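Researcher: I'm comparing several assemblies side by side, and this is the next one on my list. It has 1018 residues spread over two chains. Same procedure as the others: predict the full complex and return the structure.
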Amino acid sequence: MEYKFRDIEKKWQEHWKQTNAYRVSNNSDKPKYYVLDMFPYPSGAGLHVGHPLGYIASDIYSRYKRLKGFNVLHPMGFDSFGLPAEQYAIETGQHPAETTKKNIATFKSQLDKIGFCYDWEREVQTSDPNYYKWTQKIFLELFNSYFCNTQQKARPITELVEKYSTKGNKHFTAEQWNGFTELEKEEVLMKRRLAFSSFGEVNWCEALGTVLANDEVVNGVSERGGHPVVKKKMRQWYLRITAYADRLLQGLETVDFSDSMKEMQRNWIGRSEGAEIDFDIKGSNKKLKVYTTRPDTIFGVDFMVLAPELDLVNEIKSAEQTEAVNDYITYVKSRSDRERQAEVKQISGCFTGAYAINPFNGTEIPIWIAEYVLAGYGTGAIMAVPCGDERDFKFAQHFNIPITNIIGSSFNGTEANPTKEATLENSGFLNGLLMKDAIAVANNKIEEMGIGKRKVNFKMRDAGFSRQRYWGEPFPIIWENGIAKQLDEKELPLELPHVAKYGPGPEGEGPLANITDWVNTPEGRRETSTMPGYAGSSWYFLRYMDPNNSEAFVDRKASDYWNSVDLYIGGTEHAVGHLLYSRMWTKVLYDLGYIGFDEPFKKLLNQGMIQGSSRFVYRINGRGVEKLLADVLHTHFAEYDFQNSPNSKIDFVSHKKQVAIEVTGNSRIDKNDTKRYWSKETEMYQFSIISNYEILEKYRTGDLINFLTKILRDNISYLSNSSKQIKYFASSKQLGLFGDEGTDAIHVDVNIVDGFELDVEAFKKWKNGEYANAKFLFEEDGKYICGAETEKMSKSKYNTVNPDDLCNQYGADTFRMYEMFLGPVEQSKPWDTKGIEGVHRFLKKLWRLFFDEVKGKVWTDEKPTPEELKVLHKTIKKIDEDTERFSYNTAVSAFMVCVNELADLKCNKKEILEQLLVLLTPYAPHIAEELWSELGNTGLIIDATYPVYNAAYTTESSKEYPVSINGKMRTTLTFPIDVEQKDVEPVVLQNEIVQKWLEGKAPKKIIFVKNKMINVVV
RNA sequence: GCGGGUGUGGUGAAAUUGGUAGACACGCUAGACUUAGGAUCUAGUGCCGCGAGGCAUGGGGGUUCGAGUCCCUCCACCCGCACCA
C-alpha cells in the first residue's frame, strides 16, 4: 500500500467540508483563541507560493490550539476593493465586481487545496455591499464624533454642539455660536470631526485628467505615458488620526509586537518635544513661526528654511528675488515628497530676499526656501543651525552662508556635530550651559518673553481618506450648499452605481462624477470620491466574529466573547499603514462603547517575504559571435586587427547546413545595419567579418570562403552542425566563451527548469514556440544549466510558482511542511522548488512505518521499548516548544529526526505512532487524518487528545562532556549526570589527549559547568 | 535621506540562556538492490593538509577561561516611507 496523497487529500478535504469540521461557534465552554491572517487582495495572478507562508503558519497554530482544547476562530476573507481591478476595468471594460468575483473564486480554490481549517461560513469581502454598509456606518460614526481633549477620547459631536451653544469656547461665546449660520457652524465643527473634509494636495496629471497614486508617478511624470505630474489642491476627506497619536504610542506598551515593529510605528508617529518660536521679519509685520526640537541652539541659527509652498513665501519675498523664487516653486511642485527628502547630494534652494530677526541678539537671519523642508511637518519652517545639523551644514556650504560656531572645539569646521553634550559658547544667556540642560532654560525664556511656547509635535499627518476612484466604498455624504450632510442610516449601504466607463470625471474627480443622475439628488450633490483600501481592512477582524449580523457591524456579545485577535500574522509592509489605521478605528469604536477593547491585535507575527529565484538562459547575440570570429581569424591573419580596425567588417552567413562566408564591402553592411545581427528574410545571422581589401587581394573570394569555413569549423564546433537558423543559447558555464557582452540573459519560466537544468523540450514549446528552433550549447553531459538570481517574485520575471502545481505533484501536506521547513517564518528567503523532495521523502518514510508497499499493514499493537518511548517523548517536548514559539522549521526537522530514529529502531508500534500522528496533525493534517482512521479511530484527529510529555522516559544517567583546552574542543569524556567538579578534575587530567596538550605543565584552572562543558586553561 | 531587517558550507538552514559551529534537508560523490528509476537503502561531503594539525559564522577591533551569540567600528544586500494592497 503506497502513499496516495492525491486521493487521501481529496477525500479528507471533502469529508471536512461535508461534516463542517471547522465550523466555529460563538458559544463554547472552551477558552477562546482568535488567529487571524492579513486577508489577501485577490489579484488576477492568483496565489503564488509566497502568499500561503503566513496562512500555513496560522493554520498550524490554529490546529495546535484546537488540539490543546481551545475554541479557535480562524477565518479568511478578501480585501477586494483596490486599484488593480479598476485599472483592469479601464483597459478591458470589464466590471471590477466581475473580475473580483472571478479572482476570489480562483483564490478560494487554491486555498482549499492546501487544506486550511477555515470556517468559510464567516468569510468577508470588503467590496460586498453587505460588508461595506458597515464600513460606511463606521465612517459616519467617525464623522459624527470629535476627540475630546479633556477626556482624551472620542465623544459624539452633539456633545460639542451642546457645549458651544451653552458655554461657547475661547474663540466665541455661546451667543455668538447661536448666531452663526449653519454653514459657519459646520465649518467650526469640521475642524473637530474625526472624519473631516479639508483641502489637501494630490498628484495631478493634467494630460490624463486624473489624480495619480504615488506608485503611478515616476520621476515627476506619470508612469503611463510619461506626462508631467504636479501637486494640486483638492477637497479631500481625512481621518483625524493625529488626535490619537499619544494613545497609539501608549498602546504599543500593551501589545506583543516585535521591537522593530513598535519602533517603526513610533517613528511613523514621530513624537517630538520642542518649541514653536515666532521670529519678526525685517520690514514686515508678518511673523515667521518655526518649530525646533533644539531651542538651545538659537544663537547658532545662520539661516531659516521655509517649505516653498507656504503662503508666507509670497508675502515676504523681495522684488529682486521674486523671479528666482517663482521658478524654484515651479520646480518643487514637480517633485514628490520622497524625492524632496531623498536626494541630498543635489542641494537645492532659493533665497527669498527677506530676513528674520533673532529675538535674543537682533541678528538678521536670511530666509531661504528649500525642498527638503516639507509644509506638512511642524510649521513648515525650520531654523537652520549648520554647526549642529548635517543637512543645514551642507546647505550652508553649498550656498556660502557663514557658519556660527556655538560649541567651540566640538565643531571642527568640516562636518556638523549633532551632539547635546557640548558646552555652549557664543550664546548669550546660555553661555557655559550643557546643551541638553540649555533646552529647558531656552524654552523658559522664550515663554517668558511671549515669543513662543513649548510644543509637542507629531510627524504623523492626518490620514487622507478620499480616492478619486471608482472601485471603493462610496461616501454616504451629500453636499448641500457647501455643507456635508450624512445619509440616513436606513439608506445604507449606498451602493456603487454602474458606470459606462472607468475614466476620470471632470476636474480630477473620480469616475462617479460622470453619472449625473446619480450625483445630483434633490437635496444636493453626492460626494464622488470613494474610500481608500484601508477603510474596509481597518475593522474586518470584528466582522468575522459575527459576519451575518444585519443589525450591527458586530454584536457586543460576540465581540466581548472573541475580544482582540490573539495572534495576527502578516507582512511587515503593513507595519505603519494598515496596523495604525485599524488600531485607531478600534480605539474610536471602544471610546464610543461599541466594543470592549481598544487594541485590535494582541500579538503580531511578521512573516518574511518569499523571494523569487529566477532562472536565466543566455542567448548569443551578434556582438559575442563577432568577437569570437574575430579572435579566431586573428590567429590566422595576425597582421590584421579585426576588432579595432575601422574597416574590419565581416559578413558571415550560415546557410543550408553549410557554413558560408560572404565577403562584402562596407557599403552593403552600412545599408543593412539594422539587419546586421538578424535577418528576417533569410532567417540568418549576418556578421560583418572582413572588408579588408588587403585580405581580398591575397585570396580569391572562393578560396577565402573555403579557408574561413575550415578554420571556423575547427575552432568553433557548434557551427559545424548548424542548420538554417542560428539561435543559440549558451549555458552559463560557457559564458566565458562570449563574455557577458556577447550574450543576453533571458528570464526563463522556473517551472520548466529542474533545479538549474533546463527542460529543453518544454523550453522549445514555451511562449507559443518562440524558441522552437533554438540551438543549444550544452555542458559536457548534454545538459543545459541555467543561471540564477534572487529577485522579487513576479509574473514578468517568470519566477512565480503556483501552489496548485506543487499540491498536485507532491501533495498539500508536503507543500505545507516544506514552506515551513524553508526557514524561520519571520525571515525572507528565496523559493527553491528542488528542496521540496526531502520533505516528500519524509512523509513517504512516515507512511512506511504503517504500511509496506508489498506487505501492506505493518503496524502492530506490541508494547513499545524504553528506547522507542524516549524517541517519542523527546519529540513531544520539542514539537510542543517549537510550535509554541513559531519555530516551525525546527519542528519539521524534529519530525524528520523522529521518523529517522523510529525507522532505525524498526518501530511500527501503534502506541508510539498514534501519538506521533496527533503531533503531526497541525503540520500535515491529511496524512495524519488518514493514518489515524487506518489505525481504527472513528473521530477526527483534530479532536484527539494531545500527547503529554513525560520526562521519565527521556532522563539520561550520564552525559558526554566536551573537554576544551583554552576554549578549543579537543576531546569528550562521559560522566554520571550528578557529577561534581572535584570528581571530574582527576579524570580530566589523566586523559591522554589532555596530557598531550598540557605538555607536562600544570593547568592554570579547570572550568566545569555542570551539564555543559569542561575547559582546561593552560 | 529617514526608518526597519538580514549576512554561518555549493544551497535552504540549526545552534532557545555566552559553553561540542554546520542538526535537518537540498545538491554532489561512490556503492547496493532493480527489467527500469525521478523508488528505496548504505557510506561520504565546511575549507586547507598525506598526517599531526591548522583555518572557518560579511571585514576589522574589543570583553571573556570560552563569542555565530555581548560591545565598538566598517561593508554588502533586502524591505518600507503616507493614493499598491
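Model: For your comparison table: Chain A is about 35% helix and 20% strand.
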